[in-house]
Amino acid sequence: MQGTVDGFSYGLVTPLVAYLMACLGGALGLRCTTRAGLGPRSWRPGWLALGAASIGAGVWTMHFIAMMGFTVEGTPIHYDRSMTFASLAVAVVMVGIGIFIVGYRGATGTALFTGGTVTGLGMASMHYLGMAGMSLDGRIEYDTVAVAASVVVAMAAASAALWAAGQARGFLWSVGASLVMGLAVTGMHYTGMAAVEVHVHGTAEPATGESAAALLGPMMVGPLAVLVLAGIVVIFDPLVVMGRPSAPSAERLPGIPAHSPAQHSSVRSRLRARGPVEHRSRTPQRR
């Protein structure tokens, strides 16, 4: 018996909250990725790792907030704890690989294509691994075309977001990139959910695992803590907000005094104020 699938049990509440969480994780992660290219090279791995953790946590939180609105008529839905944890780890690791590729190779050409592809595949892998952790009194089937479309959406939008983050053109530019990243994650999620068909067995055997409220609520504490930590780091780093490196100090060469641009400007203005300089002739005057 085919069960009635409802992905919007709470109306637009879960999709909107899920989208906002995806945008938040994307904004923090992409800003950390941008910051990695603006500072010392020794700090780059730390910034990229924080960016990968932020995006992975945002993607995972978005997915399971959206899943709280997913119900199937005639059967309860439970989740396996180990598979749910594994989906979070896969998201962070694969997104991290994509971000490190772009962070070290640049957001252009082959590096952008490879990094965006790996990042998009990481999002899709997290989604379908989380779906594999579902347990219900029935059988889940997927439409192959819709699944392929969801993966393509994730890869294309992730590539666009990484390209925008690599431009480093300021805070508003990164906000736009995070909106694209949020669209990639939620678009992939609901495109994949449209591919789901559930055939309910109709038996009285309870599904194994834990309910969404009992399992996912406590498990979200960790990813949310990562997002809070990343937010604190971003807020207290002025360079992240400005989106550009500070002006390099003038190099002082041996025997040449260092002058600031303001000093050079004042010297030029004083020379202009003196007017033309009279040159004396070297020819001796006759008396």
TrEMBL record:
Keywords (A to Z) from UniProt: Membrane, Transmembrane, Transmembrane helix
Protein's name according to its UniProt entry: MHYT domain-containing protein
Species, as recorded: Streptomyces werraensis
Ranges where the record places region Disordered: 250-287
Segments passing through the bilayer: 12-34, 46-70, 82-104, 111-130, 142-164, 171-192, 212-236
InterPro entries named among the record's database cross-references: MHYT_dom (IPR005330)
Keyword Membrane: yes
Keyword Lyase: no
